[in-house]
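Re: Re: token formats

Sure, here are both.
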Amino acid sequence: MKGETNLSHEQQAGPSNQGGSAQTGHPKTPSRKSAYLLGAASGVALALFAPLLRPAARNAVKSGIRVGRYAKKVASNVKEEFEDIAAEAQAEVDLEENSENGAGKA
């Protein structure tokens, strides 16, 4: 069809909002100023509640240290178990090779 051009979705939809924020169906979208105020308010709230949050944060760090130590022990046990298995397998292979060589010579 001659003369038809493919228009992008934005061109088909008509003029866009030049304000920088897309219309999401909400009657009022938050502006940069309200986002700034929300961030500042959360910072103030965090500063006010920091003494109350400190014990919880300390307990979380302590729990993380305990989990790390437990994981280190488990990994050490697994490593030791695999080393034992590898040593046993190596001994069996050596024994089999020695018995094959001894049986072939006799």
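Second one below.
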Amino acid sequence: MAIESPKYELIEKDKQIEIRQYLGYINATVNVESESHNSAGSQGFSYLANYIFGGNKEGQKISMTAPVSTLKKNRNQYVISFTMPSKYTKASLPTPNDDNVTIKQVDKYKAVVIRFTGFTTESKLEKKINELKIWAKNHKLELLSEPIISRFNPPWIPGFLRHNEISIKIR
């Protein structure tokens, strides 16, 4: 069975870069303090995994989805997110036991996205973010957010088989 991901419509594709219209979805999120995207993702994952594995007031298990997304808010502050399965509404999701976990509605938006494989080292992320920003500038796109790093695979998957994306909201 395939793991569910946020639904989108493809607007434009240029090799590994795409412009997408996301249709809206619900995220479970947690804020963490960390020195890097990767360590922030690990910290946040444990809070969110606890929530979907039954760490909620109803003791309900929620299906795993992909990706695990990381947004850097400032120097050491990150927001880690899991997309919730589409069968849920914000009201129908179980209430988290942990006050650090919040449920957020993400409205419809457009984004420019770059897909890549391998490990998400800081140097690779910086290179891919720069590549995405240059492409967006050359195509006269107005960027509206900080880059969101999305990892789609569990940690035991070899680097060359990993699916990662960086997205930036656009006007």
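The chain is about 20% helix and 35% strand. The chain has one domain: 8-170.
- S.
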